[in-house]
């Protein structure tokens, strides 16, 4: 379970998050919309510990593992996709080569391609970013503008993957300023003027 209570965050004199509360349960697919700069990425950075909230509370269960794609993913630019994913998964001693190879092939990327990631297109980099967010069997998955630069066929693959992860009882939170029409969310929120409000169905 993921729970945020009254999260606030400022950068200097600018108040970005005024009141952010959210409870997400296993198997839920949640969407957060908001204009660029509204603070969607900031919420994800606070959940993952990359940023510290000024006030408020974050609750995770003891066995929760968070996977995240936040903003533009950073990589070892002169290493291959497989080398990058091996390095990232090994940080937590959770590298599963078969799982990583399968995910790369699923997204039409060659796991044996030695080409460095610096030569990848935006969409290809984004696919590798999605893979690193799910490859360690994470049960809380945060995806920030996940379909940026991705072609329509790959968006279809992405949607199918999220449906499967949802069936596996994962918590999935997608933040984007535009909708992915193929996805049917359990709940939708709008982040506006630092306040997270749930849309009424």
UniProtKB/TrEMBL annotation:
InterPro entries named among the record's database cross-references: AAA+_ATPase (IPR003593), ABC_transporter-like_ATP-bd (IPR003439), ABC_transporter-like_CS (IPR017871), ABC_Transporter_VariousFunc (IPR051782), P-loop_NTPase (IPR027417)
Keywords, alphabetical: ATP-binding, Nucleotide-binding, Transport
Molecular function via GO: ATP binding
Entry keyword annotation includes Transport: yes
ABC transporter domain mapped to chain residues: 2-201
Pfam family, one: ABC_tran
UniProt xrefs under CDD domains: ABC_DR_subfamily_A
Protein name stated in the entry: ABC transporter ATP-binding protein
